[in-house]
Design brief:
Blueprint lengths: L1 H14 L9 H13 L5 E9 L2 E10 L2 E6 L2 E5 L3 H14 L3 E11 L2 E11 L7 E9 L5 E6 L2 E7 L7
Antiparallel strand pairs: 1-2, 1-9, 2-3, 3-4, 5-6, 6-7, 7-8, 8-9
Length: 165
């Protein structure tokens, strides 16, 4: 089960930082936010993943030289630097492009103005189906702060994070 959760988390992380090849203006805005995430020196993502047995929480810290993932209480270092993550994400999106993008709608998240977009993307865990997602992008910083899909809710923070192990 832990391997499945780690794989699902990695798929979510990779597809959430990919390049969209689309002419839809809303998809372009989403893509831009996804791309600049790669340029940040520290990113912390907390994913709540719903499954048959309830909900699991997975935390990831993305640093320029590596990625760290914690499911349950154990941290794991994954030797995947920012360049490799971006390359894998771009390849993943070629197979799973964004579509049906809408927005922005103005909302506030934790006291910060957000532009909220919705989009669809092929589901890597269920071939032949698409997942609908909602993405909160900071109105001032242009960064992704929250993503919701059918089985995953993800919060995203930026800062000077240190390797947890």
């Amino acid at each position: 089960m832990r391997l499945f959760i780690a794989s699902a988390t990695l798929a979510t992380l990779l597809t959430s930082v990919a390049t969209a090849q689309t002419a839809e203006p809303a998809c372009q805005a989403i893509t831009k936010a996804m791309l600049i995430m790669n340029d940040q020196p520290g990113v912390r993502q907390v994913s709540a993943i719903k499954g048959n047995g309830g909900e699991d929480q997975v935390e990831a810290i993305l640093l320029p030289d590596a990625m760290y993932i914690r499911d349950d209480k154990q941290w794991r270092r994954m030797p995947m630097d920012a360049t490799r993550r971006k390359s894998m994400a771009e390849a993943a999106l070629l197979q799973m492009p964004l579509s049906d993008c809408t927005g922005p709608q103005s909302e506030t998240l934790n006291g910060t103005a957000m532009n909220v977009y919705e989009y669809k993307q092929p589901n890597p865990m269920k071939p032949g189906t698409k997942t609908s997602a909602k993405l909160w992008i900071g109105a001032k910083d242009g960064l992704m702060h929250r993503m919701e899909a059918a089985t995953v809710t993800q919060t995203i923070e930026y800062g000077a994070f240190k390797p947890p192990i």
